[in-house]
């Protein structure tokens, strides 16, 4: 599997590869572990089922938690294999399985089928050989492999991209664990086993040599054959004689312990895809075997929006009867919580700081929770502080309350936060990830309950923790103002007393964990797990790094802009006073409304609930045809906004440590999947006006670098052509024809070689207007024509491209039927007002339903590109940094010498971002520009 890179080597960080992990479950090995771990259990007809229950519980947990796209359970087929031909005594002494285990083998295979998981076995080979072969095949396809087993014989397979997972202890097994077990690296395990033998499997080995001695010998001599060839050099007489006498026996043992990786597979790796189990089938299997706990667990996972949890188990996980929050100020207590997190394998994490801006915030404390109702708060920056974190406080307490030194606390937390076997759950995890990143900790892997909610119900409600806690848990969280005050009396969190801080902060971690337990299972039920795992979750560190990088702004350019805007605003003010007949507060909507409608007598004035006239942009644009004053007001407002929002404010937003501006990207703010930004909002800088473009000139590259802007050309129109099935538009895009001229030719009957700019402009307005469900009135105002003429344009457009109308009707019908529409990648965009009785609100919702799949698909595509780009750049040894994402554009800071290669690579990755999941019927085109500032690059 490859991405759109410059060769056929898989992009190891692309979502298709990272998330395309093959899990191979050692079914035979686990059966015996489950059998011996659990007490006897019998179902109604007396059949023993303890091993079946243990196996089913393990498989259920694994299927819920893993991020794999491929999974299989591998079983032994029979006792006799090719190894018995090599050495007839192999496993000959093994006793027959216990009587109460034998009938469970077939039931366990039934369990695997009930879970809809592939079950593989092959006569003549052991399960371990099949696992070795599948691991080899999977790695050849660029997939990672996780072998679910703790069997020492499988440890020889551990290598780059192949790890093991002990399902009982939930402990990963990698090279370090293999070294601990055998005293050698995985590639030398076979040699050690060949010498030490295995009494359980009746592998003879060399008498008198155990694992420890074998490891030392192989370390000293490199491999088995070298050791046997130089056995006469061994100083210990008994050891030397054994190695010489039993050399051939060691070689036979090697053939017995070495796993075959060339088994002729009857089922390919590609056929081992994870599929959702049929709920009814799985429930029937659990009920038939009297697995009440698993029935309750399955029903709990089926909890739907607005319904109460259907089992006491789930209820306890999301609504414990009581809470216990602890303030951790001793290292021993912190180590205890870290150990609990390691043991649990999942921990909710939250940070408390002094600012909402992660790049300027000072870390005050950390909270952890591993089970519902229990959490801790670890203060590290309360009170007088430690210099750097507290030096900016004007009235910090004179005494610092007892707490663990921040550096020491982070030193203790770092291994757990970076441990790949421990899932760290946050709510808006990007913020916490960035806080830890600034302190040298790269938190991974992560889950985000906010993003899970967003993927499930984007557009239906907000996704803040407080709102979700009340919505899903019927729990009202402690308001921030209750612990920190409000208004001018509000203090930063480092000044909050520890008892109050603990209740507030620990609750955050606790609620985050509860939301995660409730919402994560719904991703699979709602068929949006892939979207979350391949788009939203991998994007957390990507955007975190973008925010961390920031972008340089030129103070002098901003100062000049501020002066120029102020001068021009003054000129506009004189014109406005003259047109109004008197001076007034131009920034006051109330005074402006009185001037326009009461004094000048303009038509169309409407008063709101406050009694003041509405004077928004749409009102002023409509009034501009009656009088010159509204147009001047609009110009003045634009300058005032640009001056206050950017020219004046950007200088204040420069981070003193980095000298750059660090915008914050919101990942769960829009209904379509688009990102939004703030502090500053780089996505709202107008690009169609000279003033807006001048703002972009203030964003500059560092010395020795240039800015590279790459954006998708007409991506939303291309998506319209694809999903609307409009062959004429598809072909135009394939042929590289000017799409607006093409539309003008099709709609207005003007040959392409006779196209005039005005006709093309009309077609362009229609093309983009259709995406947003524009009305005849809206198009008429945009083009400056009569409403009837604009309506005629729209009718002609639909007649020429009937697929557009069909798509719009389908989108509205889909939204009305299920309450949401979907993008080509399965993102659900909820449209809550689609059945509103108010015609205006319903019409607005219908326009949303039409636009959301288009805009949302475009958002999904650029997100997929963003996820692939850092790895692609690193692979190509390019040092470019991704700084900003603005709708369909990505902005990079690139060393001057690498511009050409970086531009080509970024364009290639962006143009291939849909593959291999989706092949559009039209090509994606990414266009690049380079400059010393953002405007020049764009």
UniProtKB/TrEMBL annotation:
Any matching Pfam family: DNA_pol_A_exo1
Key word Phosphoprotein present: no
Name used for this protein in its record: DNA polymerase I
GO terms assigned for molecular function: 3'-5' exonuclease activity; 5'-3' exonuclease activity; DNA binding; DNA-directed DNA polymerase activity
Domain 3'-5' exonuclease, residue spans: 325-524
Xref: InterPro entries: 3'-5'_exonuclease_dom, 5-3_exonucl_a-hlix_arch_N, 5-3_exonuclease, 5-3_exonuclease_C_sf, DNA-dir_DNA_pol_A_CS, DNA-dir_DNA_pol_A_palm_dom, DNA/RNA_pol_sf, DNA_polI_H3TH
Domain DNA-directed DNA polymerase family A palm: 692-898
Catalytic activity of the protein: DNA(n) + a 2'-deoxyribonucleoside 5'-triphosphate = DNA(n+1) + diphosphate
Keywords, ordered alphabetically: DNA damage, DNA repair, DNA replication, DNA-binding, DNA-directed DNA polymerase, Exonuclease, Hydrolase, Nuclease, Nucleotidyltransferase, Transferase
5'-3' exonuclease domain mapped to chain residues: 18-275
Homology family: Belongs to the DNA polymerase type-A family.
Complex formation: Single-chain monomer with multiple functions.
EC number: 2.7.7.7
Gene: polA
EC class: transferase
């Amino acid at each position: 599997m490859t991405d759109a890179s410059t060769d056929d080597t898989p992009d190891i960080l692309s979502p298709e590869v990272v998330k395309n992990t093959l899990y191979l479950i050692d079914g035979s090995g686990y059966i015996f572990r489950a059998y011996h771990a659990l007490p006897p259990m019998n179902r109604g007809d007396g059949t023993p089922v303890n091993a079946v229950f243990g196996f089913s519980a393990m498989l259920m947990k694994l299927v819920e938690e893993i991020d794999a796209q491929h999974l299989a359970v591998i079983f032994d087929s029979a006792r006799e294999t090719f190894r018995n031909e090599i050495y007839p005594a192999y496993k000959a002494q093994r006793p027959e399985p216990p009587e109460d285990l034998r009938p469970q083998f077939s039931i366990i295979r039934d369990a695997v089928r009930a879970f809809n998981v592939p079950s593989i076995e092959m006569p003549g080979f052991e399960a371990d050989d099949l696992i070795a072969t599948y691991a080899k095949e999977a790695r050849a396809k660029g997939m990672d492999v996780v072998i679910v087993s703790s069997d020492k014989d499988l440890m020889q397979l551990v290598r780059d991209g192949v790890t093991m997972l002990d399902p009982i202890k939930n402990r990963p097994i990698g090279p370090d664990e293999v070294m601990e077990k055998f005293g050698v690296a995985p590639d030398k395990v076979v040699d050690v086993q060949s010498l030490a033998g295995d009494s359980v499997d009746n592998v003879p080995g060399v008498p008198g040599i155990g694992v420890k001695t074998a490891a030392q010998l192989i370390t000293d001599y490199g491999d088995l054959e070298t050791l046997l060839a130089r056995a006469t050099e061994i100083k210990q007489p008994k050891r030397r004689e054994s190695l010489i006498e039993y050399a051939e026996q060691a070689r036979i043992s090697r053939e017995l312990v070495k796993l075959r990786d060339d088994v002729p597979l009857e089922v390919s790796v590609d056929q081992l895809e994870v599929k959702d189990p049929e709920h009814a089938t799985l429930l029937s299997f659990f009920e038939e075997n009297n697995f009440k706990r698993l029935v309750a667990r399955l029903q709990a996972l089926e909890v739907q929006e607005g319904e109460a949890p259907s089992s006491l188990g789930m209820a306890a996980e999301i609504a414990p009867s009581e809470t216990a929050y602890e303030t951790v100020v001793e290292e021993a207590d912190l180590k205890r919580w870290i150990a609990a997190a390691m043991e649990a394998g999942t921990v909710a994490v939250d940070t408390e700081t002094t600012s909402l801006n992660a790049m300027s915030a000072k870390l005050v404390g950390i909270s952890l929770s591993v089970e519902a109702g229990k959490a801790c708060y670890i203060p590290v920056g309360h009170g007088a502080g430690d210099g750097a974190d507290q030096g900016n406080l004007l009235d910090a307490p004179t005494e610092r309350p007892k707490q663990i030194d921040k550096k020491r606390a982070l030193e203790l937390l770092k291994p757990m936060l970076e441990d790949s076997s421990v899932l760290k759950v946050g709510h808006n995890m990007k913020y916490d990830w960035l806080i830890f990143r600034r302190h040298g900790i790269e938190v991974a892997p992560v889950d985000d309950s906010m993003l899970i909610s967003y993927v499930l119900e984007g557009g239906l409600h907000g996704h803040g923790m407080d709102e979700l806690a009340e919505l899903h848990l019927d729990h009202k969280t402690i308001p921030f103002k209750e612990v920190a005050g409000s208004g001018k009396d509000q203090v930063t969190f480092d000044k909050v007393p520890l008892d109050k801080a603990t209740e507030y902060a620990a609750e955050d971690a606790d609620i985050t964990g509860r939301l995660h337990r409730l919402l994560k299972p719904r991703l699979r039920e709602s068929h949006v797990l892939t979207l979350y795992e391949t788009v939203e979750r991998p994007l957390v560190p990507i955007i975190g790094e973008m925010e961390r990088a920031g972008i340089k702004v030129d103070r002098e350019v901003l100062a000049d802009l501020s002066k120029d805007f102020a001068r021009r605003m003054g000129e506009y003010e004189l014109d406005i006073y003259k047109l109004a007949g008197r001076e007034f507060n131009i920034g006051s909507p109330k005074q402006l409304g009185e001037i326009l409608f009461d004094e000048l007598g303009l038509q169309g004035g409407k008063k709101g609930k406050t009694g003041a006239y509405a004077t928004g942009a749409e009102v002023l644009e409509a009034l501009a045809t009656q009088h010159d004053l509204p147009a001047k007001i609009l110009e003045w407002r634009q300058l005032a906004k640009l001056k206050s929002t950017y020219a004046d404010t950007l200088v204040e937003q420069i981070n003193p440590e980095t000298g750059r501006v660090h915008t914050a990207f919101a990942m769960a703010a829009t209904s379509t999947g688009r990102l939004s930004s703030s502090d500053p909002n780089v996505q709202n800088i107008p690009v169609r006006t000279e003033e807006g473009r001048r703002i972009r000139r203030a964003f500059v590259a560092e010395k020795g670098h240039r800015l590279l802007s790459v954006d998708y050309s007409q991506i939303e129109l291309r998506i319209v052509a694809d999903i609307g099935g409009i062959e004429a538009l598809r072909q135009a895009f394939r042929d590289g024809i000017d799409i607006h001229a093409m539309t003008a030719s099709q709609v207005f009957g003007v040959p392409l070689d006779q196209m005039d700019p005005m006709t093309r402009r009309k077609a362009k307005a229609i093309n983009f207007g259709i995406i947003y469900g524009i009305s005849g009135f809206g198009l008429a105002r945009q083009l400056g024509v009569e409403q009837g003429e604009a309506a005629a344009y729209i009718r002609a457009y639909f007649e020429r491209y009937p697929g557009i109308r069909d798509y719009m009707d389908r989108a509205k019908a889909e939204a009305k039927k299920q309450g949401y529409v979907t993008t080509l990648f399965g993102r659900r965009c909820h449209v809550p007002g689609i059945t509103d009785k108010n015609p205006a609100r319903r019409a607005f919702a219908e326009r949303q339903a039409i636009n959301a799949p288009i805009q949302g698909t475009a958002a999904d595509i650029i997100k997929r590109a963003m996820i692939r780009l850092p790895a692609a750049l690193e692979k190509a040894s390019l040092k470019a940094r991704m700084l900003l994402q603005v709708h369909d554009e990505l902005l990079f800071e690139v060393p001057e010498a690498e511009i050409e290669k970086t531009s080509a690579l970024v364009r290639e990755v962006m143009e291939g971002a849909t593959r291999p999941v989706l092949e559009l019927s039209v090509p994606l085109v990414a266009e690049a520009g380079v400059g010393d500032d953002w405007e020049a690059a764009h």
